[in-house]
Amino acid sequence: ASEEFNQRLHDLSVDELLAFTNTLLDKVVLSVIITDEQSMAYQMFQTANARGTPLTSLDLFRSTVVKRAEAELKLSEEEMKGIMQQLDLTETWVGMSAGQDVTDIINAKPMNEKVTKAMEKITKKIIESWVGCRTGEILSSGLIAYITKEINDCHDFKTLKTLVKDLQQHSWTWYSYIQITPQKRSRLMPFQPIFNIVKEQW
């Protein structure tokens, strides 16, 4: 994140840099909160964000997984890297489902408003669908409680990584088979409506 920030600052003209500096000085307030417990830091992160722009269920999933992995299970750096890769892949599939271009994702280009709104809607659908697949029913409420319980029930690296990978694979399936338009699907794909219509006519 800091490399991207430095690169963006480097790309600004002098006038843009001055405008950015004035915005920081006039409109930004920083708050530093120090806590002795790492788990409390994650809890404060979630609470603070809940008062600003609402977090998506995917944001909450990520922060709860990171809290569980780092603060409670105390996973190694290598184990954390594996979990973070799965979380990043999940966000990639969700972003692509929302219409974000893969090159924009790779280059960490900020999403436009249209993609951001689409991503919020699709994130909700994907999480509801994923929880529905795991529970056998579509929950109209209690998604966050269910997700938190599932994460807290993971008592080691293997079970936590399996849970995170399950959501990543669900997100890939959503992008590959549900979100993609029929025109872009191969005729051999199982969810291709044209194939099903022809098959029924025979």
Strand content: under 5%
Secondary structure: number of strands: 0
Summed over residues and divided by their number, the pLDDT gives a mean of 79
Could you name the ranges where pLDDT drops below 50 across 5 or more consecutive residues?
Answer: 195-202
Q: Provide the succession of SSEs.
A: HHHHHHHHHH
The total of helices stands at 10
Could you tell me the radius of gyration in angstroms? 20 Å
Q: For the terminal residues, how far apart are their CA atoms? A: 56 Å
Q: Can you give the helix content as a percent range?
A: over 70%
| Structural category | mainly alpha
Tell me about the largest β-sheet: none
What is the approximate shape?
globular
Name a few traits of the molecule.
single chain, mainly alpha, 0% strand
Structure, explained:
- The chain has 202 residues and is mostly helical.
- Helix content is 71%, strand content 0%.
- The chain contains ten helices and no strands.
- The longest helix has 23 residues, at 113-135.
- The protein is globular and about 55 Å long.
- The termini are far apart.
Q: Gist?
A:
By secondary structure, this protein is mainly alpha-helical.
Describe how the helices and strands are arranged.
Elements: H1 2-11, H2 14-27, H3 38-50, H4 57-72, H5 77-97, H6 102-106, H7 113-135, H8 143-152, H9 157-179, H10 193-201
